[in-house]
Design brief:
- This protein is an alpha+beta fold.
- The chain has a single domain (about 5-130), classed as 2-Layer Sandwich (60s Ribosomal Protein L30, Chain: A), CATH 3.30.1330.40.
- It has helices spanning about 15-20, 50-65, 90-100; strands spanning about 5, 25, 30-35, 40, 45, 75-80, 105-110, 120-130.
- The strands form 2 sheets. The protein has a 6-stranded mixed beta sheet with strand order 1-2-3-8-6-7, with helices on one face. Strands 4-5 form a two-stranded antiparallel sheet.
- Helix 2 runs parallel beside helix 3 (about 90-100).
Length: about 130
């Protein structure tokens, strides 16, 4: 079994290095993606705007899965954390926009008191099986 770290341009590598994590880990054809938040080029986007943050999170997921040679259609599992129940609609709208494959991934949704930074409203981690869809 071959295991490699996956990263991509535009993702905040300083945080990954500081806290010792990989954006994605590819093991054979299974890609595990760390929880993604609304960061672009190291800056928070969409402060106080769940719609903008949700779209950025899915863009980050897309960037990582594509860097590993897959597409969002290869996602088989997602875990979503939101800081307020009222964010469910906008997060689901982004999900519908980005995840349009024939077999949608499984989904777990958790409402939490907070995320790593107070500006973050949503975080999504995922698992993809490359070439599955």
């Amino acid at each position: 079994m071959t295991t490699t770290a996956v990263t991509a341009a535009g993702l905040p590598t300083a945080a990954a290095e500081k806290f010792r994590y990989s954006f994605g880990v590819l093991s054979d054809n299974t890609l595990r993606i760390s929880g993604q938040v609304a960061l672009k080029d190291g800056e928070v986007v969409g402060v106080d705007d769940i719609t903008v943050q949700a779209r950025q999170v899915f863009e980050n997921l897309k960037t990582i899965v594509e860097a590993a040679g897959g597409t969002l259609n290869d996602l088989v599992e997602t875990t979503t954390y939101v800081t307020d129940r009222s964010y469910l609609g906008p997060v689901n709208e982004a999900r519908l926009e980005f995840l349009d494959g024939a077999v949608p991934p499984t989904s777990t949704l958790i409402i939490v008191a907070g995320l790593a930074r107070p500006e973050f409203l949503v975080e999504i981690s995922a698992v993809a099986v490359l070439g599955s869809n």
